[in-house]
Amino acid sequence: MRLAQKIGKLQNGAALESARRHANRLILTRRLDTDLEPENLIQSIDAEQFEAIRRRHPGSEARDAWPKYFNLSKWMAENLRRIRQLGLDRGFRKTILDLGCGAGYFLFIAKILGHDTLGLDIDDVPMFGEMMMLLGLSRVIWRIQPFVRLPNFRKKFDLITAFMVCFNGHKTPGLWGVEEWKFFLDDLETWLHPHGRICLGFNREADGSLYSEELHRFFLERGAEINGKRMILALRH
């Protein structure tokens, strides 16, 4: 760029605005590893309000029951691991959509790190909604169904996540096949920024598998990077 053009850009404020936009996309300060730990994250939550929610929603903390998510130590550690695996504890500020966001712990940590977050879930578990409010998070109420497009989010995302996926007809006769997944992923990709990513974590089905061999081939053909141990599938747009 010529000197005259640079001066003109400064005079009209374009350079300042460009710098501001760039700064806003950065996580201003990466927190020290000693600070970004489960117990410190838990201490940042209002303990009195959390206990009030727990008292309003008593129940078994059995493995498959939703009250298990009151175990903050376990689920903060699990979601912090996800944050680090995805590189969200460093680098650029991202817009993130989490499908099946539940109590919102993944989004909570992402928000602390400076990311712009949004959740999506059904409204069948009141505890989840109350936790989202307590953590200062936003969500869209929506049931994901086969061959039905997602709602209008009015913005695009750098990262779309879904952990412990159940919306695919998990452990039911209506378990999604290739056609359902193709429709869903095609729709998801319309909400991605260029070079955005979709990261999915699967639950095991009744037979112990994550998905069929046919689906495995389909995901690979779409450019998936599969780590079976973590049950995470990352699709690059």
Shape: globular
Return the domain count.
Answer: 1
Determine the number of helices (DSSP H or I, runs of at least 4 residues): 9
Instruction: Please give the alpha-carbon distance between the first and last residues.
Output: 32 Å
Kindly report the CATH topology: Rossmann fold
Oligomer: single chain
Strand order, largest beta sheet: 3-2-1-4-5-7-6
Order of helices and strands: HHHHHEHEHEEHEHEE
Mean pLDDT: 85
Which CATH architecture is right? 3-Layer(aba) Sandwich
Largest sheet: 7 strands, mixed
Helical content (DSSP H or I, runs of 4+) = 25-40%
CATH homologous superfamily placement: Vaccinia Virus protein VP39
Rounded radius of gyration (Å): 20 Å
Q: Estimate the strand proportion.
A: 15-25%
Q: For this structure, what is the CATH class?
A: Alpha Beta
Structural class: alpha/beta
Low-confidence segments, ≥5 residues, pLDDT <50?
1-11, 14-33
Number of separate strands: 7
Main traits of this protein?
237 residues, alpha/beta, Rossmann fold, seven-stranded mixed beta sheet, 9 helices, 7 strands, globular, disordered N terminus
